[in-house]
Amino acid sequence: MVGAGPYGLAIAAHLQARKVPYRIFGEPMEGWRSHMPREMYLKSSPFSSSISAPAPGHGLGAFRVQEGRHPGREREPVPLSEFVRYGLWFQRNCVSELERTAVHGIDRLRDDRFRVTLDTGEEFSVPAVVVATGISSFAYVPSELTGLREDGLVSHTADHTDLSVFAGRSVVVVGGGQSALETSALLNEAGAQPTVVTRTRPSFGPPPLVDTAQDRPLHARLLWPGAAMGTGWPLVVCSRGPAAVRHLPARVRAHLLRTVLGPSGAWWLRERVQGRVPVLSGRSLHSAARENGGVRLEVRNPGGDVEILHADHVIAGTGYLVDVERVELLSQGLRRAVRKGAADPPQLADAPQLSADFQASVPGLYFAGLAAAPTFGPLLRFVCGTGFAAKRISASLAADHAG
Ligand SMILES: Cc1cc2nc3c(=O)[nH]c(=O)nc-3n(C[C@H](O)[C@H](O)[C@H](O)COP(=O)(O)OP(=O)(O)OC[C@H]3O[C@@H](n4cnc5c(N)ncnc54)[C@H](O)[C@@H]3O)c2cc1C
């Protein structure tokens, strides 16, 4: 198992329960500690933010109770620091053998086993590998901005844990989703001067009216049933039917990924952005160039005219795009051997095509988390997808082990 975020930890916990021998590598919860702003809150509800365990008692609610607090309320978003503590607690309780070292490379041997090389120099071979290395390697920066990345004038939201380094500086944040909007709020609160540039007008979810699903009136529960990803039929379908999503045509899966819980801010961000951070909506990027130590950004406005913006720095809050080529720990030969979506819409074209048990076209090579979302839909982008992934992958590995 490569990776010790929510997906790697959940799969390891399920393998342990099934008595399948495994080794798991990585820094626990590193994606959350090193690639997200420290003052951030989770957008997902406390009831949708549990890492799947094979036995009850290891959810976020249980952790909060064990820390002497309420199990969770819809109207109280979960701070990042709490979720990181929860992940570390989950690891201590459910995954006994974590090895805190990175995997340097994975190659395929002639006998169809995999050779794994660790950062420590240790080498060994295994019949199966699960890639659960998370989202940061898939950070997407639009081509108009990439030329300024090396100069340090452009970064991605995933590059920052502390936005106070921008205090006193002007920053353009590109994008209109949760990451972009929360980054702009945190920049503003840290004394920077952010401006959001986005194609669509930012929208914010409605605040929950009650604190738990059981408090919702019966008619609301019938009309807008609840599921792991939230309330309403589209979310019920995507939460409960990822196996069915896999059989949908590629363009429908791409549409689901784009639109289900698509770019929008959490309800609690509205008052921190609206009226506080300038937002230029209806704008698309045209070009970016270095100017006087900062950035000159050209954007096209809704009328088709080009507007010029000046900023000390640009942060791309433009999300993530799955691309097998960016999983650099896999050898080039292995990356090439993995069948991708090729003719699919651009969003899916470079993603691995996975079987019902999360295996790529290379037998024994599994992908979990965001890399599996183009196959199984939006559930796999979130922590609440860990149960579906961990059950299927651990069952498949247990069957191989028994056979
Ligand atoms: C700003 C932001 C906010 C988010 N908010 C939410 C939210 O509120 N709710 C939600 O459900 N989801 C949220 N997400 C999505 C969330 O990141 C994923 O749901 C979750 O992190 C996926 O878990 P993971 O285990 O796949 O990846 P990660 O958590 O990224 O973990 C990846 C692991 O792989 C390890 N790793 C990487 N390379 C190697 C290597 N070579 N060797 C060994 N280990 C390696 C890392 O150290 C890390 O431990 C958010 C994402 C972002 C960017």
Molecular structure report:
The protein has 403 residues and is of the alpha/beta class. The chain has two domains: 6-138 and 320-402, FAD/NAD(P)-binding domain, CATH 3.50.50; 143-204 and 264-316, FAD/NAD(P)-binding domain (3-Layer(bba) Sandwich). The chain is built from 15 helices and 17 strands. It has a five-stranded parallel beta sheet with strand order 7-16-8-9-12, covered by helices on one side. The chain has a three-stranded antiparallel beta sheet with strand order 3-4-5. Strands 13-14-15 form a three-stranded antiparallel beta sheet, with no helix packed on it. A hairpin with a 2-residue loop joins strand 13 and strand 14 (294-300). Helix 1 runs parallel beside helix 4 (80-94). The protein is globular, with a radius of gyration of 22 Å. The protein starts with 5 loop residues before the first helix and ends with a helix. The site of flavin-adenine dinucleotide (FAD) has 32 residues, from helix 1 and helix 2.
CATH C-level category of the largest domain: Alpha Beta
Distance between the termini: 20 Å
**Tally of individual helices:** 15
Percent of sequence in beta strands: 15-25%
Shape: globular
Descriptive tags:
29% helix, alpha/beta, globular, FAD/NAD(P)-binding domain, 2 domains, 5-stranded parallel sheet, binds flavin-adenine dinucleotide, 15 helices, 403 residues
Structure, briefly:
With 403 residues, this protein is of the alpha/beta class.
Question: How are the SSEs ordered, and which strands pair?
Answer:
Elements: H1 6-17, E1 24-25, H2 30-34, H3 60-66, H4 80-94, E2 98-99, E3 103-108, E4 114-118, E5 123-126, E6 129-131, H5 143-146, E7 154-156, E8 170-174, H6 178-189, E9 193-197, H7 218-223, E10 226-227, E11 230-231, H8 233-240, H9 242-245, H10 250-259, H11 270-273, E12 279-280, E13 284-291, E14 294-300, E15 306-311, E16 313-316, H12 332-337, H13 346-349, E17 365-367, H14 373-376, H15 386-402
Parallel strand pairs: 1-2, 6-17, 7-16, 8-9, 8-16, 9-12
Antiparallel strand pairs: 3-4, 4-5, 10-11, 13-14, 14-15
Bound molecules: flavin-adenine dinucleotide.
